[in-house]
Amino acid sequence: MEVYSHLRTPIILFVVVFAALTSLALGCKVGFYQATCPRAETIVQSVVKSAIRSNPTYAPGILRLFFHDCFVNGCDASVLLDGSTSEQTASTNSHLRGFEVISAAKARVETECPGVVSCADILALAARDSVVETGLPRWEVPTGRRDGLVSRAEDALKLPGSRDSAEVQIEKFAAKGLNIEELVTLVGGHTIGTSACARFVHRLYNYSNTNAPDPHIDQAFLPNLQTLCPEHGDRTIRVDLDTGSVNNFDTSYYENLRKGRGVLESDTKLWTHHITQNLVQQFISVGRPNQLTFSKKFARAMVKLSQVEVKTGNEGEIRRVCNRIN
Q1: Least enclosed by CB within 10 Å: which of 38, 157, 227, 306?
Q2: Where is this site: Transition state stabilizer (predicted)?
Q3: Summary mean pLDDT of the chain
Q4: How many domains does the chain have?
């Protein structure tokens, strides 16, 4: 797998400087388990790497798990809890995957350091490792989160939706302390994602009740989407969000938005809105991906996201297994 070898020198400097910045993250710190479970990060990385190499779809799955966890009552692993009314049962959390990878990593860590490492930290580390495995350079993840005790389906309504306008997306991210640039950067995670036809089929045949496709879709690209998602076909079929580069964490996703090849309506809105379009443009340099800029900003945004409403100290607990409270 290509790891952008031509960027290694500036990336090394970036990692050193960025590690110092992230160590200041509120409530958590880099190397939190150095004394109590020094191999925790290595174990998680090993499990994640093995899983993704056997099935590349785990990478976007784990990243999505992390995002959906942090956006609902903070990064506390509440999305991992089972239950008839838990977050997992919300329609916005349909098709979440990667639970078994997190559970496997937790089991391995528990064998070595029982009751020490939280599921919230394992999920945060696994999200980073998933991105690294698909192409971005490694960054340091502050740890020290504790696991939440509450998981409610209704709380998942806070999640950004596939039909959200740019304004709504900006509002939802702002509610979590994330600015517009961080919104555009984090949505770049769709470079390794897929979506069910149900999330965007309305754009292909009857956009806004016009009985016509969304005019923002590239006319040469539209037949491809219609073939993949027939008007009355199986709406669970999944389609790449970054056509031509679904397994590589790169900036071709942004180039596709510029070309009218965004799949989700919410993604397309980032290009058609004048404020967010300027931020999308920063990752497209003379028609070529500006990978180094994206790498730096994505890592920084991920660290900030990982600090949303975290529980530390005596809050929550350290679960023994990730799908149920102790």
Answers
A1: 227
A2: 64
A3: 90
A4: 2
Q: Which of 158, 192, 216 lies at the terminal end of a domain, its last residue?
A: 158
Residues of the chain with pLDDT under 50: 1-26, 287
Annotated binding site for heme b: 190
Out of 6, 68, 216, 232, the active site residue is: 68
Binding residue numbers for substrate: 160
> In this structure, are residues 257 and 268 in contact, taking their beta carbons and an 8 Å threshold?
yes
Is residue 314 included in any domain, yes or no?
A: no
Residue partners of 299: CB distance under 8 A and separation at least 6: 18, 136, 137, 139
User: In this structure, are 52 and 171 located in the same domain?
Assistant: no
Q: Are 184 and 129 members of one domain?
A: no
The range of the structural domain enclosing residue 219 comes to 166-304
4-30 residue pLDDT tens: 333 333 333 343 333 333 333 346 999
Q: How far apart are CA 256 and CA 310, in angstroms?
A: 34
Listed in order, strand segments (DSSP E) in the chain are 194-196, 238-240, 284-285, 288-289
- Judge whether 81 lies within some domain: yes
Binding residues for Ca(2+), as ranges, are 69, 72, 74, 76, 78, 87, 191, 242, 250
258 assigned to some structural domain:
yes
- CATH of residue 264's domain is 1.10.420.10
Active site residue 6: no
Q: Which of 282, 32, 260, 252 minimizes the C-alpha distance to 140?
A: 32
Q: Do 222 and 92 have their domain in common?
A: no
- Binding site feature residues: 69, 72, 74, 76, 78, 87, 160, 190-191, 242, 250
Does any domain span residue 265?
yes
| Domain end residue (candidates: 107, 137, 158) | 158
